[in-house]
Amino acid sequence: xxxxxxxxxxxxxxxxxxxxxxxxxxxxxxxxxxxxxxxxxxxxxxxxxxxxxxxxxxxxxxxxxxxxxxxxxxxxxxxxxxxxxxxxxxxxxxxxxxxxxxxxxxxxxxxxxx
Length: 114
What we know:
This protein is of the alpha/beta class. The protein has one domain (15-55, 62-102). The protein is built from 2 helices and 5 strands, in the order βαβββαβ. The protein has helices at residues 26-36, 80-91; strands spanning 15-18, 42-47, 65-70, 73-77, 99-102. A hairpin with a 2-residue loop joins strand 3 and strand 4 (73-77). The longest helix is centred in the last third of the chain and has 12 residues, at 80-91. 25% of the residues are buried.
């Protein structure tokens, strides 16, 4: 079966970037360079430190804090879920992002099925 691909024009879109490896890893920088070619409305919100393996877990017992690292770039003291929720619900007001890009992991995407 052939994959079904759709070409999307990123010009004029508000793009939100995140990851689970931390704000200082290569992944967000790589996505940012690709996304900025046709667009400058890029928001980056990611965990302050590596949160690989945190999966879909929000912080329930600790406060989630955020610090600005520049124009539209934020580090969150929390999980990847906290980063995306804080970014979309609290930082990127109107209009909401048209596209959320995440991934490009430093290591392999591995897990154990139990």
